[in-house]
Design brief:
alpha/beta, disordered N terminus, binds 2-acetamido-2-deoxy-beta-D-glucopyranose, Leu-rich_rpt, receptor, repeat
């Protein structure tokens, strides 16, 4: 959508153009393009009078979802206004109502200069497909955002792979199925690829390594299978990877450690196995590492404590064994730490309770033991966000009274030796793989930061 100042700017320009050619009352727009625009809007909107109401959509009778730009065709000819952006969504002023039989008209081809097309929440009732012929090498489309359209079915058109001008491709929250086309790897200018919340299946193609400009890769909430492609390691500019909620198998590839710009990595709710590769120790910018609900069945590596930018670390239900490395106490930025439903044993490092920003700590359903040695200030700060229940060998120290220990659901260390640790693993008492979900994924940034009023200073 055009920002207001630029739109006003173009309206002024448009007025100049129209007045300078006032003798023949041209709308500042070619007749064929105006006709194409009318057909596109007619196919989408529940307003049969759109054309009559907006006879000069670039100038006198603008429509908020359209942006026009002046494009000069040679020195002699007059500059002409062309539609460059078309946006339909709930965020425009007086949101347009899409008709129940709305579809994407091939008349878009009559708008040769449009470089941004976004249609959000429009195709609801009807069963609509993305028309393959409107994309291809002739297109100058840089942004294609068609999302939150439950009525959008079919496969991702192969012609999109030839639209090499694309920088943003978002087809999120539709009902697309089929595979991720290999050809998409040819989109060398693509910076953002979002195919989340669809019904895509098959493997993530190796060809994805060709997306040399990619910063955001989101294919979460699909049915993608197979292993993570090694070619991921070639996407050196990636800052966010979200492949959560799929059916991916195999190991976390060590090449992910090459992605030095990575801030957000979500591989949760898949079928990935351990170990956690040492190479991840190079991801110094990483702030979000979400791996919960994967049968990693491995140890927590010591190096995780050196990822000092980590803010959210979630490894619930990963079949983790071994102890919590004391190095975790270096994670000064950590706000959320989820280690629940694993098979961790040994004591809880007391200095975890000294992490200055921590406000959610879930250690429940493990085999942790010994004295829980947190300050009462820490316990008060976290309140209900501290959960260490379901660890049979754990007891609370002398700094806590009976009430606190009842509140935490952990008995006091009455007789230190009687109740103290037996650090054997009870491998079979806790299922590695369950369907339990912590429901933290949809808007992770926001949900995580709501606690402890941290939003204010982040
Ligand atoms: C469309 O235009 C006709 C005549 O111009 C008018 O009678 C009718 O009310 C208009 N419909 C809408 C939805 O604006
Ligand atoms: C995905 O496919 C399944 C079965 O094929 C169907 O039940 C489900 O509604 C589909 N989901 C979407 C978002 O289209
Ligand atoms: C995970 O993989 C194992 C074997 O590799 C398989 O038995 C199991 O059904 C898979 N689970 C899911 C949720 O895909
Ligand atoms: C943490 O992230 C910031 C900003 O991305 C970066 O400047 C800093 O170098 C990172 N810390 C380390 C230890 O790399
Ligand atoms: C901690 O994890 C357990 C097990 O996954 C879960 O049942 C519980 O609700 C969590 N506690 C908090 C405070 O989130
Ligand atoms: C600890 O384990 C040993 C054997 O491994 C057993 O003999 C002992 O009774 C256990 N102690 C407690 C307190 O469970």
């Amino acid at each position: 959508m055009a920002s207001l100042p630029s739109l006003v700017g173009f309206l002024l320009l448009g007025a100049l153009l129209v007045s300078s050619t006032a003798q023949n009352m041209t709308p500042g727009m070619e007749a064929g393009e105006f006709l194409g625009l009318s057909e596109v809007m007619g196919a989408l909107l529940d307003n049969p009078n759109w054309t009559q109401m907006h006879p000069h959509p670039c100038t006198h009778t603008p429509w908020p979802g359209i942006r026009c730009d002046v494009i000069h065709h040679g020195h002699d000819s007059l500059p002409i206004l062309h539609v460059t952006k078309l946006h339909i969504g709930p965020d425009v002023a007086n949101p347009p109502v899409c008709k129940t039989t709305a579809y994407l008209s091939a008349s878009l081809l009559k708008l040769p200069h449009h470089n941004s097309l976004s249609i959000v929440g429009c195709f609801r009732m009807s069963r609509v497909f993305l028309p393959a012929p409107i994309f291809g090498s002739f297109s100058s489309l840089e942004q294609l955002v068609v999302k939150s359209n439950p009525g959008l079915y079919g496969e991702i058109p192969l012609t999109l792979a030839d639209t090499t001008t694309l920088r943003v491709l978002s087809l999120s929250q539709n009902s697309l199925h089929g595979q991720v086309p290999k050809g998409l790897g040819r989109l060398r200018k693509l910076e953002q690829l979002d195919l989340s919340y669809n019904n895509l299946t098959g493997k993530i193609p190796q060809e994805i390594g060709g997306l040399k400009s990619l910063t955001i890769l989101d294919m979460s909430y699909n049915g993608l299978q197979g292993r993570l492609p090694y070619s991921l390691g070639q996407l050196q500019t990636l800052q966010k990877i979200d492949l959560s909620h799929n059916r991916l198998v195999g190991r976390i590839p060590s090449v992910i450690g090459r992605l030095k710009q990575l801030v957000f990595l979500d591989l949760s709710h898949n079928n990935l196995t351990g170990p956690i590769p040492d190479t991840l120790s190079g991801l110094k910018r990483l702030e979000y590492l979400l791996v919960e609900n994967n049968p990693l069945n491995t140890k927590l590596p010591w190096f995780m404590g050196t990822l000092v930018n980590l803010t959210v670390l979630s490894l619930s239900t990963c079949g983790l064994v071994g102890t919590i490395p004391p190095s975790f106490c270096w994670l000064d930025q950590l706000i959320v730490l989820y280690l629940d439903r694993n098979n961790l044993h040994g004591t809880v490092p007391p200095k975890l309770g000294a992490l200055p920003n921590l406000c959610q700590l879930n250690l429940s359903q493990n085999q942790l033991s010994g004295e829980l040695y947190f300050s009462s200030e820490f316990v008060q700060r976290l309140g209900k966000k501290l959960d260490a229940s379901g660890n049979d060998g754990l007891c609370t120290g002398h700094q806590f009274n009976e009430q606190v220990s009842q509140y935490l659901g952990i008995p006091p260390c009455a007789d230190q030796t009687a109740k103290s640790s037996n650090t054997s693993d009870h491998e079979n008492s806790n299922p590695y793989w369950t369907d339990a979900s912590n429901a933290i994924i949809k808007e992770p940034m926001l949900l995580y930061l709501i606690c402890c009023n941290l939003i204010g200073f982040l």
